[in-house]
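Ticket #4471: structure output looks truncated?

Reporter: J.K.
Steps to reproduce: submitted the chain below (88 residues) through the standard prediction queue, then opened the result file.
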Amino acid sequence: MTATTTQAQLGYIAPFFIVRDVMPAIAFYKDRLGFEVTFLGPEDDPYFAMLKRDGVRLMLKAITPEVQPTPNPSRHHWARWDAYVYTP
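Returned output as attached by the reporter:
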């Protein structure tokens, strides 16, 4: 007897970006690029956000002040991109 499997349908993929401060990062994606915030938390001191626009999703997370985000190219010259978004 052969088992049949059904593949799950995938909705989207969301790159995860580390930022210094989540609120200015949200403002950039909302005001300059037209994204919409779908989640922001925790409510009392937000440090994590999810945003969407069209078929693109993003996750932003602020880390502790003593640890600064490091762009990929500064760690590895061959790792220049974190995400690619096709815009026809």
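Triage note (M.O.): checked the attachment and the full token line is present. Residues 16-66 form a domain with the 2,3-Dihydroxybiphenyl 1,2-Dioxygenase; domain 1 fold (CATH 3.10.180.10).
Status: closed, working as intended.
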